[in-house]
Structure formats: C-alpha cells, structure tokens
Write a structure and sequence with these properties.
66% helix; 159 residues; 5 helices; mainly alpha
Length: 159
C-alpha cells in the first residue's frame, strides 16, 4: 500500500484536530486580544489596552480542542461518505462541501467560546465578568442561551 493511500481514522482526526486547533489558538491569543480591543466600541484603552492580554483565554482553552476536533472529524467523515466521494472528477467539490459542513459543526462550539472570549477581553461586564466563567454567567443572565450564539449566522457565512 502506498503512503498516500493511508487515511486517518476518526479518532486520529479527532486528536490531531484538537491538538492543532488548541496550539494555534494559544499562540495567536495575544494578537487576537489586541485586535478585539482595537475594534471595541469602548476604545482600545478603556477595553483594557495591553493589560491582561490573556484575559478570556479560559473559554478558548475549553472550546478550542472540541471545536477543532469537531471540524476535522466531520470533515474526514463527510469526505468518505458524501455522495460525491466515489468520483475523482468531483473530488474538489467533495472537499469543499465536506469542509463547509465541518465548519458549521465546529461553529456550534466556536461561536459560544468566541462570545465569552470577546466579552472577557473587552471587559464588557466590568468587575462582574473578570473571568471566562463569570462572563459566561453574565451572557446567560443578560441574553439567555441565545446570547451564546450571537453572530452565529454571520460566522458561518464568513467561514
């Protein structure tokens, strides 16, 4: 069997996706915090400036691996079982459809963690939302469960 014929198992995709997603999210978190604060309606300095550059990382740590794992495992499963998977002439279309379905699945985890992260990074709730857990409680209290999915549709369109 040639090396290009080796396909990852479901669990290998799950583990690789989780590890890769977490590594990338942790590496770029400080840059994301600066970007989020620059875009904040409060302004960069009032949103925290360069202080607490890792504020909100708790939600990323909790959601990154499951979100990335969900993407990769859905993507690999769709690639193998989609109606177009048997035809080489439709391989690019099969990859695009599989990736799109994988992104929608991942957004079920990614969007709530992004909402919590941005609320924490920009200190939206002040002293009531000091940690990711506190910000999650405030989202639930102020907006209900739907508050965790604010921006879900636009995120899917972007992804």
């Amino acid at each position: 069997m040639a090396s290009e014929d080796v396909k990852p198992t479901f669990f290998e995709s799950l583990a690789a996706g989780g590890a890769a997603g977490t590594a990338v999210d942790l590496l770029f978190f400080p840059i994301d915090t600066v970007k989020t604060r620059l875009q904040s309606p409060q302004g960069f300095l009032r949103a925290g400036g360069l202080n607490g550059i890792y504020k909100g990382i708790g939600s990323v740590v909790v959601g990154s691996a499951p979100g990335a794992a969900l993407f990769f495992s859905t993507y690999e499963t769709m690639k193998k079982h989609a109606p177009l998977s048997e035809s080489n002439s439709f391989a690019p279309l099969n990859h695009m459809i599989s990736a799109s379905v994988g992104e929608v699945a991942a957004c079920l985890v990614r969007v709530p963690t992004e909402v919590i992260k941005t609320r924490t990074q920009t200190m939206t709730y002040g002293a009531l939302g000091k940690s990711s857990f506190d910000a999650a409680k405030q989202v639930l209290l102020n907006d209900g469960w739907s508050g965790f999915y604010r921006g879900f549709r636009i995120t899917i369109m972007r992804e």
